[in-house]
Specification:
The complex is a heterodimer. By secondary structure, chain A is mostly beta strands. Chain A is built from no helices and 12 strands. In chain A, strand 5 and strand 6 form a beta hairpin. Classes of the chains: A mainly beta, B mainly beta.
C-alpha cells in the first residue's frame, strides 16, 4: 500500500535561514509526488509536483524539491524563508485509480518562523 | 474562474443529527474527491466521484457516510447520525477530465464540522 512519512512534526527556523522538509514515500510504481501548503483555517495550495523527467522540480514561492528514487525521498527546500512561509506542509503521493488519482498524504510538518 | 467552493464553511451538529456538506467543483472539472482531516493529522482520502458515478469509495466509512455527484448541482457528502468522532475538516478537490492522472487537484477551503 502507498504511504508517505514526514519525519518532522514541527520545525522552527529563523527568518532568512534555509529550509529542508523531509518526505519519504512508499509506492510500487513510478510515483506522482506533490507538496502542498496549508495556512491556518485554509485549504491546500499546490507548491510543486513531480511526474517524470528532471528530478529537481521548481515550484511557487521560491520552493524546490528533489526526487531521489534510491532513497524514496522527495524533500522540499527553500534557500531563505520568509515569515509568510509559516504554515503546515504536506507531502503526498498520487495513487492512480481509473484515469485519476487519489492523494495519500503524510501527517504534515508545521513550520514556525522566528523573527 | 471561481475556485472550488464548499459550503458551509463551518457546521455544528448535535450527536444523532445529519450533516450535509456541499462542494461545487471548478468550472470544467468533472472529477471530485473528498478528503477528511482529523485534528493534528494529514488528509485522508474518502471518495472519488465523476458525474453520477462513484468511482472509488475505499476511504469511506461503511456506515452513515454517503456521497453523490449528480448531473446537475454540487457534490454532496452526507453524514447521518453524526458522532463526536466525525468532528473534522472535510475538504473537496476537483480536477479536469481525461488527464490520465497527471492533473493537479484543486482544493476548496473545507468545511469544519463540529459535533457537540
Amino acid at each position: 500500500a502507498q504511504s508517505v512519512t514526514q519525519p518532522d512534526i514541527h520545525i522552527t527556523v529563523s527568518e532568512g535561514a534555509s529550509l529542508e522538509l523531509r518526505c519519504n514515500y512508499s509506492y510500487g510504481a513510478t510515483p506522482y509526488l506533490f507538496w502542498y501548503v496549508q495556512s491556518p483555517g485554509q485549504g491546500l495550495q499546490l507548491l510543486l509536483k513531480y511526474f517524470s523527467g528532471d528530478t529537481l522540480v521548481q515550484g511557487i514561492k521560491g520552493f524546490e524539491a528533489e526526487f531521489k528514487r534510491s532513497q524514496s525521498s522527495f524533500n522540499l527546500r527553500k534557500p531563505s524563508v520568509h515569515w509568510s512561509d509559516a504554515a503546515e506542509y504536506f507531502c503526498a503521493v498520487g495513487a492512480r485509480i481509473q484515469g485519476a488519482q487519489k492523494l495519500v498524504f503524510g501527517q504534515g510538518t508545521r513550520l514556525t518562523i522566528n523573527p | 474562474n471561481a475556485g472550488v467552493m464548499q459550503n458551509p464553511r463551518h457546521l455544528v451538529r448535535r450527536r444523532g443529527q445529519e450533516a450535509r456538506l456541499r462542494c461545487s467543483p471548478m468550472k470544467g472539472h468533472s472529477h471530485v474527491y473528498w478528503y477528511r482531516q482529523l485534528p493534528e493529522e494529514g488528509l485522508k482520502f474518502m471518495v472519488y466521484l465523476q458525474k453520477e458515478n462513484i468511482i472509488d469509495e475505499s476511504g469511506m466509512p461503511k456506515e452513515r457516510f454517503s456521497a453523490e455527484f449528480p448531473k446537475e448541482g454540487p457534490s454532496i457528502l452526507r453524514i447521518q447520525q453524526v458522532v463526536r468522532g466525525d468532528s473534522a475538516a472535510y475538504f473537496c478537490a476537483s480536477s479536469p477530465p481525461m488527464g490520465g492522472g497527471r492533473d493537479e487537484q484543486f482544493f476548496g477551503p473545507g468545511t469544519r464540522l463540529t459535533v457537540l
